[in-house]
Amino acid sequence: MHSAQELASQIEVLASLPTVYDRIREQLESPTGSAFEVARLVSADPALTARVLRLVNSAMYGHRGEIDNIVHAVQILGLQQVHDLVLAMSLHAVFTGIRPAQLDMKRFWRDSVLCALASRAITQHTGRPGAERMFVIGLLADIGHLVMFQTTPVLADTARQSTAQTGEALHLAERRIIGCDFAEVGAALMDQWRVPATFAGAIGTQTLPRLGGEHAGDAATLNLARCIVEADALDASSAHTGACVDPCVWKLLDITPDEIAPIREEAELNLAAWLALFFPAHAH
């Protein structure tokens, strides 16, 4: 049996975050962190600069083509948001060399972006703060599966097939067969990457949000977002999906099952545009 920390440390050898991310995180954590220094760090990477400018000028921020320099972009977005976006934009580069045989990577990134959009839509819908951060946490919610299919591919595939045959919850099958589940592995990787604690807290408890403590609301958001992604994959109705959600999720988010349809519509409506922005190679 394997522990989540063991699998995450195996992958970290292959996938480490780029230096620019570490430097931006240092600025964010420093009492003297400056927007100008963050702008300088982003500017040193032309590809990253282009993507940040595309993002700040996109419909998500409403500055349609008005922002043409990175200093202005960083001032508008703020250090926290630039940090989260650079983390999100680094993902594809980090995992470029990792293509597990049993995982359809195009589908994986598509589902991850849909989970991100659903997480953001749920947060906005419930009136909770931090919608943009929840977008990035949603994007990372399933990263544990990427780690598992790379490090223990046979066991990960066995768990997936067992779920398909028996209807057992995937995280329970993974714990039984591998020794840990995708949520625990994702949280362990977040800890190793030293990203803010909210990421590991939400990702680690997304299968059982009521155990999330201060992160329970974020974990419930991820839990519902994953249900929306599954519904999309199975082409299931929103009514059917709402009935399958753990009742504690509705309670934690303070919404009702009939609110799932507009949230899902908004997430699916924006999918193609956001896929093109974050994962251009997988957008078609």
UniProtKB/TrEMBL annotation:
SUPFAM superfamilies: HD-domain/PDEase-like
Source organism of this protein record: Thauera linaloolentis (strain DSM 12138 / JCM 21573 / CCUG 41526 / CIP 105981 / IAM 15112 / NBRC 102519 / 47Lol)
Every HDOD domain range: 14-209
Lineage, opening ranks: Bacteria, Pseudomonadati, Pseudomonadota, Betaproteobacteria, Rhodocyclales
Name of the protein in question: HDOD domain-containing protein
Coiled coil, from the record: none
Gene3D superfamilies the record matches: Hypothetical protein af1432 (1.10.3210.10)
